[in-house]
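Q: How would the structure tokens look for this protein?
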Amino acid sequence: MENFTKIVQEIDNIVWGVPLIVLILAAGIFLTLRLRGLQVRHLGKALKYMVKNEEDGEGEVTSFGALCTALSATIGTGNIVGVATAVGILAGGPGALFWMWVAAFFGMATKYAEGFLAVKYRKINEDGKVLGGPFYYIENGMGSKWKWLAKLFAFFGACVGLLGIGTFTQVNGIASAVQAFFDPEKSNTVNLFGAEYSVAIVITAVVLTICVGLVVIGGIKRIAKVSEFVVPFMAVIYIVVAVILIVSNISLLPGAFVEIFEGAFGIRPIAGGALASIAISMQKGVARGIFSNEAGLGSAPIASAAAKTKEPVRQGLVTMTGTFIDTIIVCTMTGLSIVMMGSWADKNLEGVEITTDAFQKGLYMISENAAAFVLMICLVFFAFTTILGWNYYGEKCLEYLSNGSNTAVKVYRWLYVLAVFIGPYMTVSAVWTIADIFNGLMAIPNIIALFALSGVVAKETKEYFAKKSGKML
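A: Here is the predicted structure in token form.
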């Protein structure tokens, strides 16, 4: 197992090396320039469109439902465990949070382009079923000669769902949180797969597997319905709790920002010299930021394509708000809490334990058990909806790969449920490393398409806003 962990870590370092980080950031910067800072100029309009659905749009779910489905797949363990992993002393340190912000800012332009292209190049069957996502805007936008690239994206997308974001990382995060609350000392264990596991983890695996199985058979409409209720409700609760923590310890906030900026620019090195520290913070911050908000991965447009809308620009703006909510708001709440409470510097803490420690210290007005319980509940529901959202993504990718084979989709669904069941027994480091690898591989075909189709996005976006403002082109 140790050799396996080393191998996947080496692969991860190659995949998420400087070239890919530069490519993803370059795409966001390039689109930001071509769209003239759209994520700043039209954020207000995007937030308005987010809750105002079109009356006569074509699609399977409302724009808000599509956004919640996308958010269900993004607001998950990445916002709680991923941020903690990135800013921990054994990773990028507090400076990683700054690079998450940078990735998110430019990622908003990327997300806009993804949502725009998803609606522009989608297909709607006679029965009203929507077929859309990067594989369609690669094939239909770039041309049939690029279909191999679309197939490559679909393959990596199915793997991300099955072996990355969708299953192992989410289930592992849920199981770790449940065990940390109900059986932190592992006083009740059973022997499985040659190792000792807490009974709490075993029970979690069984219950979660059953719940996931009951929901995924309902497809996009059931997933969207669950997400429309759970995601906003739990996001508000988590943000409110984090704000209470920050306000209650407001005197520590200036120092936290100092640590974040010093870490980001190597003023206070975490590992090696200043340049090494900057490189590590940037790598961990960008990787975890993308893992959390998925800008550039091409996942969100799969959900965006199902939105009831006639206007690509409108859905692009709605899709863009997902990155703003996920990283600029939710991840920031987590990161500030961890840095303010100093939990990031404890070498004895790993994953969700870092965030739990921060909440227990920061929410001193309630008991440690109560603080841990609130965090556990938020994490469980965030991760659960992410599992559902990525099942939909994975199925759509496989549906494209198999030319609509129902048998292939059913087999994938069973494998997905099985992956949920075994997820809690994977080690934290191995889980996140595998997820990072597939994330990176999935992003490459999508980023290529975004560069290739950026002219279409820029031209039609300009025409849309010119028409709205009554200006002559």
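The beta strands are 123-124, 130-131, 189-192, 195-198.

The chain has one domain: 2-469.

Upvote if useful.
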